[in-house]
Amino acid sequence: MSRINELFKQDLKVVNMGLESFYNDLKAQKVETIHMNWRPRAGGNPKMLALLKRLNTKK
Amino acid sequence: MHVKMIASDLKNYLTDSAPFEARVHSIFKDVINLIDHQGELITLISENKMMAPMTLQAPFNRSVVKKMVSDDIVMVTDSKISFKRLNWQLEFMAADVWQADFETDALKYDPHTFMACADIIREALLYKGDNGGLLPLIKVLEKQLQIEPSQMSLPKNNTYTEFIEEVFITLIKHLKNKEYEMLVNILPRFVGFGPGLTPSSDDFLMGMMITLYLESIINNQDQPRIREMTAQIYNSCISKTTTVSEAMLKNASKGRIASAHRNLIETIYSDHGDQVREKAIAVINNGASSGTDFLFGIYCAQRILLSRAFNR
Amino acid sequence: MVLYDIRKNAYYDSVTLMLISKEIKQIEGVAEVLVGMGTDLNKELSSNLGLGGEAIDGLSPNDFFIAAEVSNEQVMAEVVETVARLLTQKKASGDSVYRPVTLNAAKGMIPELNLAVVSIAGQYAEDEVDRLLEENIHVMLFSDNVSVEAEKKLKQKAVDRGLLMMGPDCGTAIINGIALAFANVVKRGPIGVIGASGTGTQEVTSLIDRLGSGVSQVIGTGGRDLKSEIGGLMMLQAFDALIADPETKVIVLISKPPAPEVAEKILKKVSETSKPVVVDFIGGDIEMIRKAGAIPCISLEDTAYKAVAAANGETAADFAGFEMSDAEISKIVDHAVSGLKPSQKFLRGLYTGGTLADEAMKLLGNQFGGIYSNIPLSPEYELENLNVTGKHTCLDLGEDQFTVGRPHPMIDPSTRTERMLKDIDESTAIVLMDVVIGYGSHENPAGEVADSVRKLKAKVGAPVVYVASITGTSGDPQGFESSKEQLEAEGVIVMPSNAQAVRLVGKMMHALAQKEA
């Protein structure tokens, strides 16, 4: 049985790297999750940086 | 730091009782409980949580909360709460007041809408409810009241429901027959039972009693007996369950519950039946099994009221 | 032997207590375990389960206990270690004061990590995903700006190890009932979905929920998976998994038309399973799908209808109409068009979901003199300078030119709000929009649209007709019903699906053309 079919039988245990809102949404669904503190360095993708900035100012 | 909102019952309590000393009871990410000289529980919440009775809402100073420990001394006056050791003050003179009581005049009861509502709640429970608390007893409830079973599959018994099933059957029987005094007698065999910081049976009782309490007010019947029953429910919990649960039951016996839960109940006793499902699911998402158990208590009360209304 | 862990006057939140209970139950060698507060009845239950003892007898209701029946000392040690880890981990999973910086630290906190959701900047993502796959952790890669070569390398590695590598540019998945990134809360059921497109998957799964069925797994592949350079690696891998999955009784594939040799590979797999396979290669070759023994579809909504029918052992005819009766539809069309002033001539489609915009364009086709867009059906209808004056237009506001330096409009509705206030005037007859709710989306997309409509009603001196559909379910955080209410309160006509909204607009445009004639 492939690892994917095994995954279907397990509880999800997630590591989130990047947007904190995804982590919050996983928590809201009662998933065991960890948020990794990943910061893009200067010169990172502007779209992603903008997303992160937006989410930092959102509440 | 300024408190954003204060519950009306807490405001009145502080006007009557302050100044006094309290201590920190428990600390969570968005909730801090204090216990005062009279054993009253006062709750501080951050802006991430919704209001409840005996609660104040203020922005949390995270670095301060990190250093807070149980039994830290707190000075409470009629305008300020001060954590001495941490030098953190919360002023609530200018805070908005959250009305802790239901606006009973605005509530309505119509048996047909109520029944549709009960079906929706059952569906939400079976679809999204947590099966680790008392929910598996739904099978027993529906059998007792001879309710047409749902198409959805029912959760299997767990260790807790197996243990408490007999007492639960008796409890339902007494409720159905309005034998409130007898119900109070068996409460020591029911309260403080199950998983969670607020044990499942307590959450269940809260949902059940607030639903019956409000119906008695709306339809103006049995009020003194129901009021007596809720007061007795609270009395039988004293020292039989956790401090937090006790406080919640006390508030519920006076007709006061947390905002999200109240939202749902107001919708049940209204003609906005289409919003019931969303609000039921919001309640289920509270805590681990707490929300489900509370909702199951409501559902139970609904079926009992309906069995009286339709004599089924 | 019975083991006790007692913490007096200790308060842990209920979710933590539940996690502890679940984890300990899964340890081999644990026959029975009870986790709770020391109330009389909980203590009595412990006794009944053979877990009673002096240690618990003396507890008060505010004391926390764990009582476990274990087969030997090693198991006891494992239980103790698990509890200790979970109770300190509570700080991380519950309260998140400590955020690990490396994958190793993360694994230290949750050793059985099985999935990673990665949304860091594209150029750094390749290394991170590579490391995750090495550790046999499945990956959902939301980031875009990952090169084709990197995608191929990572997906090959994932295939070799039997892992999921969803992405890059994968925005939607639902694994084991959990919505990941931009996804809706959909009932569990027998339909497995593999989608190369985000909002397409959202629309199909939301409709499956509304039609009373549910999904087993929803796997995203990322937008490029079915191009010839990648060869459909992830779709094929996911297809195998769903064929082998006992909970999946029907398989649905959603994507823009694949490269021909990739389509062939995928359709060949249909013959490897007796499960019905429903395929929407949005606008692609229907005959090819039918010849392969799969069920072709004419729209995202049709895909949902056919999947649910297949799950019920039935076949469904193409759903090309409306849920409402013809009479009701005529009434709506007549009422809308009869109120229009002579100056009102044009359609303004304003979409946040790319696939939904694409579906709208395809369904409206080349009627009405062509519809200009930033995603036109043919090059002559490319919108110059994004200037909409004087023509029918339909914009995909999620495309790059609109998202430079700002978040995607599904997260930040201000892009659409600005366009609405700019593009809608007395020359506008009809406005067509999608409203996508669910996890990942803005807190209240419907509210934002309703606000804009309200402002425009005050500003524009002509009765513009607004038509929308909501992609979402009643289980979503924003609430389907309350979203619908907010839109209808401003007079927006809310249709049950994007396809029906577009068809209604098509009818209105016909009626408008006839009125002008």
Descriptive account of the structure:
The complex is a heterotrimer of chains A (59), B (312) and C (517). With 59 residues, chain A is α+β, with helices and mostly antiparallel strands. Helix content of chain A is 47%, strand content 17%. Chain A contains 3 helices and 2 strands; from the N terminus they run αβαβα. The mean pLDDT of chain B is 91. Chain B has helices spanning 8-17, 62-67, 111-128, 138-144, 159-176, 180-186, 200-218, 223-237, 243-253, 259-268, 276-284, 290-309, and strands at residues 5-7, 20-27, 31-36, 41-45, 55-57, 73-76, 80-83, 88-91, 96-98. Chain C has a 5-stranded parallel β-sheet with strand order 10-9-11-12-13, sandwiched between helices. Chains in contact: A-C, B-C. Strand 1 (13-17) of chain A pairs parallel with strand 4 of chain C, so a sheet runs across the interface.
Which characteristics define this entry?
heterotrimer, A: 59 residues, alpha+beta, two-stranded parallel sheet, 3 helices, 2 strands, 47% helix, disordered C terminus, C: alpha/beta, Rossmann fold, 4 domains, 18 strands
Count structural domains of chain A.
1
| Mean pLDDT over all positions of chain A | 72
Radius of gyration of chain C: 27 Å
Q: What fraction of the residues of chain C are assigned to beta strands by DSSP?
A: 15-25%
Largest interface: A-C, 43 and 65 residues
Tell me the name of the CATH homologous superfamily of the largest domain in chain C.
Succinyl-CoA synthetase domains
Strand line-up across the major sheet of chain C: 10-9-11-12-13
As an assembly, this protein is: heterotrimer
CATH C-level of the largest domain in chain C: Alpha Beta
The figure for the number of domains of chain C is 4
Q: Largest sheet of chain A, order of strands side by side?
A: 1-2
Count of distinct strands of chain A: 2
* Number of contiguous helices of chain A: 3
Gap between N and C termini of chain A: 44 Å
Largest sheet of chain C: 5 strands, parallel
Helical residue percent band of chain A? 40-55%
Brief sketch in words of this structure:
The complex is a heterotrimer of chains A (59), B (312) and C (517). Helix content of chain A is 47%, strand content 17%.
SSE inventory with pairings:
The complex is a heterotrimer of chains A (59), B (312) and C (517).
Chain A: H1 3-9, E1 13-17, H2 20-28, E2 32-36, H3 46-57
Parallel strand pairs in A: 1-2
Chain B: E1 5-7, H1 8-17, E2 20-27, E3 31-36, E4 41-45, E5 55-57, H2 62-67, E6 73-76, E7 80-83, E8 88-91, E9 96-98, H3 111-128, H4 138-144, H5 159-176, H6 180-186, H7 200-218, H8 223-237, H9 243-253, H10 259-268, H11 276-284, H12 290-309
Parallel strand pairs in B: 1-9, 4-5
Antiparallel strand pairs in B: 1-5, 2-3, 2-6, 3-4, 6-7, 7-8
Helix pairs in contact in B: 3-11, 3-12, 5-6, 6-8, 7-8, 7-9, 7-12, 8-9, 10-11, 11-12
Chain C: E1 2-7, H1 14-26, E2 30-37, H2 40-48, H3 54-57, E3 64-70, H4 73-95, H5 103-109, E4 115-118, H6 122-134, E5 138-141, H7 148-161, E6 165-166, E7 172-175, E8 178-181, E9 188-195, H8 198-210, E10 215-220, H9 233-244, E11 250-255, H10 260-269, E12 277-281, H11 286-291, E13 295-296, H12 300-311, H13 326-338, E14 346-351, H14 354-364, E15 393-396, H15 400-403, H16 414-423, E16 428-436, H17 445-459, E17 465-471, H18 480-489, E18 493-495, H19 498-516
Parallel strand pairs in C: 4-5, 5-6, 9-10, 9-11, 11-12, 12-13, 14-15, 14-16, 16-17, 17-18
Antiparallel strand pairs in C: 1-3, 2-3, 7-8
